[in-house]
Amino acid sequence: MQRFDGFPPGRVRTVAVPALFFTDLLPMIDDLAELKITLHLFWALQQQEGEYRYMTLRELLQDARFLGGFDADPDAAASAVRAGLARAVERGTLLHVQVDGVDGPQDVYFVNTVRGRNAVRAIEAGRFVPGDREYPIALVDERPNVFALYEQNIGPLTPLISEQLRAAEQDYPVEWIEEAVRLAVERNARNWRYIAAILQRWEAEGKDRGVTQQPTQADRYRYVRGSLSDIVDF
């Protein structure tokens, strides 16, 4: 049995599930594949924007991580997904429409909500045609946001730190912030000013030249004698 390490501290992304799911729908579901697919679509559709939100069978069958939760054998997993979808449609949880695509018929699924029912009516009336998305919705490792990253590795958030983190998200790539936090932890300099100094240096000098390398004697002198001497500890 695979074990789960638990939810991390701090802010984590959440998904809204209607209360009616727990009171009315969940007691009816007696098939694991149907349950997994139902919950997956609650998640997947909330990752999308726009008036009409849907998943296609093709997208589901191309998501290797999603399929791996059904069976190690890809063909058996695909069969389980198709069977689970059929049960969810028969149950009335999902709505299914088949449309003509570039590569032939395409199976499209909506959650049976007002928005989903409106989408089906729009397709039937010729007012909406689902198309291939440039970036399909798929399961990936959840990356902590910068607030959770800071709380997990540096310390509690304060209003001032939260404001500085929001500004940093606008100014620097998330990968830079993550690496700067890692360096601060490795060097036992767990404070935001140290992290900000790293980011500012990468921005000014180029990240490849930045503090991922071992500091030179000139670096040591400049920082020890400079305005950041109270926060940099090489």
Strand order of the largest sheet: 1-3-2
Mean pLDDT reading: 84
- Span from first to last CA? 44 Å
Q: What count of structural domains?
A: 2
> What letter string, H or E per element, gives the SSE order?
HHEHHHEEHHHHHH
Radius of gyration based on Cα positions: 24 Å
Poorly predicted spans: 210-234
3D architecture notes:
Residues about 210-234 have low confidence and may be disordered. The protein folds into two domains: about 20-125, Arc Repressor Mutant, subunit A, CATH 1.10.10; about 145-225, Orthogonal Bundle (Arc Repressor Mutant, subunit A), CATH 1.10.10. The chain has a three-stranded antiparallel sheet, with helices on both faces. By secondary structure, it is mainly alpha-helical. The longest helix has 18 residues, at about 75-90. Strand 2 (about 95-100) and strand 3 form a beta hairpin. It has helices at about 20-25, 30-45, 55-60, 65-70, 75-90, 115-125, 145-155, 160-170, 175-185, 190-205, 215-225; strands at about 55, 95-100, 105-110. It is built from eleven helices and three strands, in the order H-H-E-H-H-H-E-E-H-H-H-H-H-H. Helix 2 (about 30-45) packs across helix 5, helix 7 packs parallel to helix 9 (about 175-185) and helix 9 crosses helix 10.
